[in-house]
Amino acid sequence: MFLATNNSLNAAAATANAGSKINAPAGLKTTADAANEALMAKSGTTASMGQKDFLTLFTTQLKCQDPLDPVKNEAFVAQLAQFSQLEATTGMSETLKTYVESMSGERMMSSTSMMGKTVSVPDAPAVVQAGKPVQGFVSLPTGAEGVKLQVFNDKGQQVATQTLGSQKIGDMPFFWDGSSDAGTQVPDGNYTFKATVVSQGKTTNPSVNVLSVVTGVNQQPDKTILLEVAGGKSVKLSDVQRIGS
């Protein structure tokens, strides 16, 4: 906040610094002196200036101005307008902060409705339980001449392979019933997928989106909502592309 200064006193101070000693009238305080005294009185408390602090400095400035060279009314009005604008902006900021915090709480509560639902999670572990099929999809923005899916157990050993032919542009859905290449049912546990795609003469390994059941909801310090899914992986709510029953 800019406070108007006394031109005469400033000039006198400048002359004094140059070597000519000129004393201000006895008992007369400059605006800077008054401001320093008011701020020193607030030592040990918050450093921010509120409405009461501003009015204290403002009235002190009025009392201490040089009667022979008073500050123009326009300068005082400008200070009042500037402070009013600053106070309104600060109030708006606090109101917006409160609103955002309340909305974060509502998002957290609404996210609990995701519990038990199925969401797509990139590269999430597939949980095999009681022979229930695992479903997912691979995004193919340029289609594919061929796709190979490999399944690995928690020890990194390959247990199943599926080779698919030409695929259209879009999401390629798949499901795995838990059968191994040997034709036996794999034990219950966590398994991971790897996709190898040949498209337009190039071989890539895109993410495999596994449909996983939401087991929990977690809100980070930055208010980001994370969905915890079966298998121990988490995904941002904003990153979820597909929700099932």
Structural overview:
The strands form two sheets. Strands 1, 3, 6, 9, 10, 11 and 12 form a seven-stranded antiparallel sheet that branches. The longest helix has 39 residues, at 73-111. This protein has helices at residues 7-18, 31-41, 51-64, 73-111; strands at residues 118-122, 126-128, 134-140, 146-152, 158-164, 170-176, 189-199, 202-204, 208-219, 225-229, 234-236, 243-244. The protein is elongated and about 105 Å long. By secondary structure, the protein is of the alpha+beta class. The chain contains four helices and twelve strands. Mean pLDDT is 76; it is low at 1-25 and 43-47. The chain folds into two domains: 7-91, no CATH class; 115-244, Immunoglobulin-like.
Q: Under CATH, the topology of the largest domain is which?
A: Immunoglobulin-like
Task: Report the strand count.
Answer: 12
The coarse overall form would be elongated
What are the low-pLDDT stretches, counting only 5+ consecutive residues below 50? 1-25, 43-47
Question: Helices and strands in order, then pairings?
Answer:
Elements: H1 7-18, H2 31-41, H3 51-64, H4 73-111, E1 118-122, E2 126-128, E3 134-140, E4 146-152, E5 158-164, E6 170-176, E7 189-199, E8 202-204, E9 208-219, E10 225-229, E11 234-236, E12 243-244
Antiparallel strand pairs: 1-9, 1-12, 2-7, 3-6, 3-9, 4-5, 4-7, 7-8, 9-10, 10-11
Helix pairs in contact: 2-3
